[in-house]
Amino acid sequence: MKGKVFLVGAGPGDPELLTVKALRLLRCADVVLHDDLVSPEVLELIPAPAEVLRVGKRCGKKWVTQEEIHALMIGYAREGRTVVRLKGGDPAIFGRTGEEIEALREAAVDFEMVPGVTAASAAAAAAGIPLTDRRHASAVLLTTGHRSSVHVADDAGPQAQPFKTTVAVYMPGQDLRRVREELVQKGFDPSTPCLLVSQAASPRAAIHACTLGALEQSPPLSSPRLLIAGAVAASGQPAAAREEAGHETLPEENDVSLSVIA
Ligand code: SAH
Fold it and tell me: Shortest CA distance to 167 belongs to which of 226, 216, 118?
């Protein structure tokens, strides 16, 4: 029997945001290789006979190297097993899936991708905003603050484009001042509304609303965190959450406030 590798998106945390296909594959997998971002609630859905291996990183330190992950996937598939390579969110968004696909192709191992709900969508849903809104934004830029700089191309700033852009910064890191500086340098105004969304799609979700200029004064919300910057962010946080936190209206510009959505 020929084995196969399924590169599956686990979604942002809430098991109800798994696709039906992801759930079906988790139920019939022989081996599941998962990242740290996959929630315990999703891992609980994997039946006992499956071999479940954690291959993520912790505190920036890899348990298993990327090459070892490739070797594990290829090795199990060649034994004829059904392998689920389970990644947080969508496997094709900042998930090193490109390298894994290349390794599988080179090894002539059959594979299939199963998309998932990406963190930017979950963060927007938690805040009650659309990422696009024809009145405010007609483009979405998914970028990363990982490593030394925000990866926003020079022509990606709002002034350089004929349309208004919502920016979703994955892995914004601890140095929010650098994220702010880079976005301002690319043409985003310091008054741009921002939402820092922590642990979207979980009962621990928290949202902080501020302007880009005041980004580094944000409270230390726990990881994983994602930044949404753009006009659509102005209406972030559902009314109920604002009232709970004692805000009748959205915070003043540069005001620092924290609302927890239970
Ligand atoms: N493939 C994933 C992204 C992997 S990069 C996806 O499509 O969502 C990891 C980053 O995603 C985290 O550092 C964080 O910025 C973001 N992220 C993942 N899950 C999140 C969540 N539940 N809430 C907020 N941000 C999240």
Answer: 226
